[in-house]
Amino acid sequence: xxxxxxxxxxxLVVRVERWPAPGHTVPGSDLAVVPGGKxxxxxxxxxxxGGRVAFVGRVGDDPYGTLLxxxxxxxxxxxxxxxxxxxxxxxxxxxxxxxxxSSIIVSPGANGRVxxxxxxxxxxxxxxxxxxxxxxxxxxxxxxxxxxxxxxxGARVVLNPSPAGPVPLAVLALCDPLVVNExxxxxxxxxxxxxxxxxxAALRALGPRSAVITLGAAGAVTADATxxxxxxxxxxxxxxxxxxxxxxxxxxxxxxxRGDDLAAAARFAVRAxxxxxxxxxxxPSFPTAAELP
Length: 293
Ligand code: ADP
Hints:
13 strands; globular; single chain; binds adenosine-5'-diphosphate; 10 helices; nine-stranded mixed β-sheet
């Protein structure tokens, strides 16, 4: 169904009462080491929803590489195109403050070593997908080659340009859809989004065949050749929004792979995103197919 080409990070999480100023030290909670990274999160989320999923990327030859490989494997993700590379795995150094706000440093490690040649070696896997899901936590040349390989093989390309950064026109033109949150939308549109439906249409005017903006508790809005659609999210008690966007994108990709149109896929995806905010963490919070009938 879905092939994810992207990042895997070990999330190293510590809670703090306040952040240290440069040159200072503060005490923190015990360290939690949790598998993460946008690519791996989306692969795990799509597999947990019952999808046949493969992951293309790199992990380091350190203990975190073993952890990351293990979490993908346990979720049932095919790992024939996951390369173990000398050096450190991707890591995210995350401090979470008293109000739940997080401050994050991402060290790319092995993710930064994913090359267009890796994509060529995985062309069989990428080309066999119905939907190929991409993000921006691996170098753009690899993202671009993955989008081109997928499109040439007739697969649908879904790009979540996160962390927000420039996307070449040649890549934008292959996206169907481009999936962004409000922050990423504002970055790409060079200003505040304003009316969400108009924002989604404006994003589509940048080149992708279709666009989706996720709106947190307000759901999402879609724009494609048939027009725009507002998709409300179910009301839930939010416990931890980490990974909500990844759960949304994974669910969207899975439903598109199964033949839904964009608005129908988004109606399922908002339910997956809402389910993910009801539990702590990213990967542990992703719903199963049984939880989303
Ligand atoms: P990101 O996590 O990338 O910032 P959003 O915050 O827009 O993205 O959330 C992605 C999706 O997760 C939303 O479209 C929605 O389906 C779901 N979601 C997020 N926050 C909530 C919430 N408080 N209540 C219900 N659903 C939510």
